[in-house]
Design a protein that fits this description.
By secondary structure, the protein is an alpha+beta fold. The chain has helices spanning 4-11, 28-39, 60-73, 111-126, 163-182, 194-203, 206-216; strands spanning 20-25, 47-54, 79-82, 90-94, 101-105, 138-144, 150-157. A 4-stranded mixed beta sheet has the order 2-7-6-5, covered by helices on one side. A 3-stranded antiparallel beta sheet has the order 1-4-3, with no helix packed on it. A hairpin with a 5-residue loop joins β6 (138-144) and β7 (150-157). The relative contact order is 0.18.
Length: 221
């Protein structure tokens, strides 16, 4: 269901939407995921979760700062999708987003109960779908199990990232985390914006691609 705020935003010209850094078309893969996400909103096919347990010397503040840095660097992590009233769906990059960050303290629970509660937390999180017209399409949870121990859960919609990109995000995040925890500085190369890929796609000659694949797949049924 479209919220009143989103409905109002979609009734405005795209150029007048608030808190916008950029607007551009979706890729064919994103368009397919958007279609399936709207056609079967209850499906968990494109719901991705990354979970782990941290121990010894973990810094919550450095960890949160690292994620804030990564979200600020990568526009796709600040992106939502609009389609109602439009000829073609678009993705809207927000200048700033509030990082969905949840913390709970489970230190008073027995270890067996913590493990049971963790499994239930992951299950319930997966049952809370993302609304594709609201950014960010990602969220984080830290669940404290001891003085230095934490369960961590990162959830996001697959329309944002594939497996290769997930590795890049995680590598950057831990690079920033190490620097923030140690009080050192790190300078990473500025990432290339996703809109460059969209621009490259739009310049492709689809007829040549179609001819290639028809020839390549000739004989397959």
């Amino acid at each position: 269901m479209t919220t009143p705020a989103i409905a109002k935003a979609q009734s405005l010209p795209l150029t007048k939407l608030p808190n916008v850094e950029d607007i551009y078309p979706v890729s064919p893969m994103q368009q397919g995921m958007l279609f399936h996400g709207l056609y079967q909103p209850e499906s968990q096919m494109y719901f991705i979760q990354v979970g782990c347990h941290f121990e010894q010397g973990f810094s919550v503040r450095a960890f949160q700062r690292a994620w804030e840095e990564v979200v600020g660097r990568h526009s796709v992590l600040r992106t939502n999708f609009l389609w109602e009233g439009l000829k073609e769906p678009v993705q809207v990059v927000r200048r700033k987003v509030q990082l969905p960050w949840r913390e709970e303290d489970w230190r008073l629970l027995e270890e067996a109960e913590q493990k049971r509660k963790w499994k239930e937390f992951v299950r319930l999180d997966r049952c809370a779908p993302f609304h594709l017209n609201q950014a960010p399409l990602t969220r984080f949870a830290l669940l404290r199990t001891s003085e230095d121990g934490y369960y961590f859960l990162w959830s996001y919609h697959h329309i944002l990232l594939d497996g290769w990109c997930q590795q890049i995000i995680m590598r950057e995040m831990f690079t920033f985390y190490q620097a923030f925890r140690d009080g050192s500085k790190v300078m990473l190369e500025k990432p290339r914006p996703y809109r460059d890929y969209i621009g490259w796609l739009q310049k492709l000659d689809e007829s040549r691609a179609e001819s290639f694949w028809r020839e390549e797949l000739k004989g397959f049924t």
